């Protein structure tokens, strides 16, 4: 009975949202370009028809060569024609979103994939999977997390949790999101299912879909999407998930979603449904709201700090290690990219330290007597 009441409540909430936004009773119009697939135009058309069948509340259209179908078509016989038609339809508002292959986004825009993880069949947003949020790795990953929250919120996840894949730069990204949270940016961290917990996601967290939004660098995200989508088919036919997702960036106004040339018709269908979710949820509106809140919490200042390199030691100043001591205590939470600099900073402050790699990531080893002093130095220098 409780579930029924909950469902009824959700229905009324959706109706109210639709009336407020002016979208109630309207179909989300989405399109797909049919050229470029390794599996042929027929595969894309089959995916489009499947999406229309699965969700009658949307209207699916095709951009490409004329084919036998009941779906509305816009003729385009080359990739270039297809992109031109797609952009014109998006800019005019005739379609709300479009799924395509191999589209060049400007720097600052990258795509948020959506997949179904194998362990518990949980949906997870992978931020990001194609495109380049920034030329600076850490700045890019912070932006990727913002983009992931935007995509998940727009697609209907009321309060998405955010986890950071345990890759190079993860600690710096975690510090950035902690700063945003402390400054009032409202979101939830995911908690690793590993015994030691934390916001950094390990391999089993990825398989289990522990976070709603998984933050990573784009190249790793691309590989994860490929693995999730085609691990049962050997890689040549992507059969699972919703594709590589929408290009998101500050002030970017087109809702264009990417699929791979290897994407099979099930992924094409899901990508169109993902596109419709973004149209219904008003991606542009959500994006503006999230960016506004993030900037109010100091996002720009935090991103600028990554572009400032640590003060370099004078060329004629040689840093040597203090007298060697027995190092039995480990300090975790130092990013691998900053490990050597952090160790040298301790040396400069008269603390003997050694860098190392524990089972959960990089560590700095110091003596039991110096651990508290070492932590204070590292915190003061911005390494923790």
TrEMBL record:
Residues annotated as catalytic = 359
Q: Which Pfam families match?
A: FA_synthesis
Q: Which InterPro entries match?
A: FA_synthesis (IPR003664), Gly_reductase_pC_asu (IPR012116)
Biological process annotations from GO: fatty acid biosynthetic process
Question: So which domain of life are we looking at?
Answer: Bacteria
In the Enzyme Commission scheme, what number(s) does this protein have?
Answer: 1.21.4.-
Which NCBIfam families would you find in this protein's record?
A: reduct_C_alpha
The name on file for this protein is: Glycine/sarcosine/betaine reductase complex component C subunit alpha
Q: Which organism is it from?
A: Citroniella saccharovorans
């Amino acid at each position: 009975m409780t579930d029924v009441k909950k469902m009824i409540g959700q229905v009324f909430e959706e109706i109210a949202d639709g009336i407020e936004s002016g979208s109630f009773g309207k179909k989300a119009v989405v399109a797909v370009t049919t050229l470029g697939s390794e599996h042929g135009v027929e595969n894309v058309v089959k995916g489009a028809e499947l999406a229309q069948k699965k969700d009658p509340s949307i209207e699916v259209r095709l951009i490409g060569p004329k084919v036998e179908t009941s779906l509305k078509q816009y003729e385009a016989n080359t990739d270039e024609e297809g992109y031109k038609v797609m952009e014109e339809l998006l800019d005019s508002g005739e379609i709300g979103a479009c799924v395509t292959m191999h589209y060049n986004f400007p720097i600052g825009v990258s795509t948020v994939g959506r997949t179904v993880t194998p362990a518990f069949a949980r949906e997870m947003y992978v931020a990001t999977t194609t495109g380049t949020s920034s030329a600076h790795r850490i700045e890019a990953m912070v932006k990727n997390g913002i983009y992931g929250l935007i995509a998940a919120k727009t697609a209907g996840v009321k309060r998405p949790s955010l986890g950071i894949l345990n890759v190079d730069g993860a600690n710096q990204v975690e510090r950035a999101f902690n700063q945003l949270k402390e400054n009032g940016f409202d979101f939830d961290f995911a908690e690793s299912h590993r015994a030691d917990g934390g916001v950094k996601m390990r391999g089993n967290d990825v398989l289990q879909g522990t976070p709603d939004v998984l933050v990573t660098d784009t190249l790793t995200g691309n590989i994860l999407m490929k693995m999730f989508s085609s691990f049962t088919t050997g890689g040549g036919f992507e059969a699972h998930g919703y594709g590589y997702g929408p290009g998101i960036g500050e002030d970017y106004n087109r809702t264009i979603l990417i699929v791979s040339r290897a994407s099979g018709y099930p992924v094409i269908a899901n990508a169109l449904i993902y596109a419709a979710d973004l149209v219904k949820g008003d991606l542009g509106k959500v994006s503006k709201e999230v960016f506004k809140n993030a900037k109010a919490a100091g996002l720009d200042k935090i991103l600028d700090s990554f572009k400032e390199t640590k003060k370099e030691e004078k060329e004629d100043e040689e840093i040597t290690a203090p007298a060697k001591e027995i190092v039995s205590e480990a300090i975790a939470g130092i990013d691998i990219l900053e490990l050597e600099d952090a160790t040298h900073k301790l040396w400069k402050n008269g603390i003997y330290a050694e860098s190392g790699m524990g089972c959960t990531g990089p560590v700095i080893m110091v003596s039991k007597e110096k651990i508290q002093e070492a932590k204070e130095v590292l915190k003061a220098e911005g390494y923790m």
